[in-house]
Amino acid sequence: xxxxxxxxxxxxxxxxxxxxxxxxxxxxxxxxxxxxxxxxxxxxxxxxxxxxxxxxxxxxxxxxxxxxxxxxxxxxxxxxxxxxxxxxxxxxxxxxxxxxxxxxxxxxxxxxxxxxxxxxxxxxxxxxxxxxxxxxxxxxxxxxxxxxxxxxxxxxxxxxxxxxxxxxxxxxxxxxxxxxxxxxxxxxxxxxxxxxxxxxxxxxxxxxxxxxxxxxxxxxxxxxxxxxxxx
Length: 231
Known about the structure:
Layout: H1 2-16, H2 21-26, H3 32-47, H4 53-62, H5 69-80, E1 83-96, H6 99-109, E2 120-124, E3 128-134, H7 138-144, E4 152-163, H8 174-184, E5 191-194, E6 198-204, H9 205-230
Antiparallel strand pairs: 1-3, 1-4, 2-3, 4-6, 5-6
């Protein structure tokens, strides 16, 4: 019995390490025995002994996501409350991080017409920073920052802002659910920025329109599940 539990635990770890495999299993897309044969060498390597296909197959059948029912309900509720905002004609400029550059960008920040809903924000990592702004502001921005050479410049970008009314940091699986729906639709994300209540996805225009529809369907499905639960 002890070995069986150990095999099950190892099988769960292997499945969790394979992108989307858990989703395929839960939707009955993958054959249990076929998957068991495929991962058998890795299971035996980790256990250090021979493991039967039957034991691995039984473990696969027991596989499930580890979130509790409460977490699943919170996730479903979070997705159902998400609001989408799509905005086109956006540009993104990336630089190596530099103190003087940051001060220059802060001075440009004062010229933005926030009252008109203009998009302008800066995201920093340890070595780089990116500026997202209106495309018709790009020429003026590059003039102000002409002393600094961009690493990357992209025009005609479209953003999808996923807004949630509460803190989503403590809701396991929220970002994964959004990314999963986009990935399954085979759409390319240029970049992702986040705050405590928002995830902002950057796409090329054509992909953005498809991604908006994909995310909208995800949200509506979550709302419908919530309605059925309340009935």
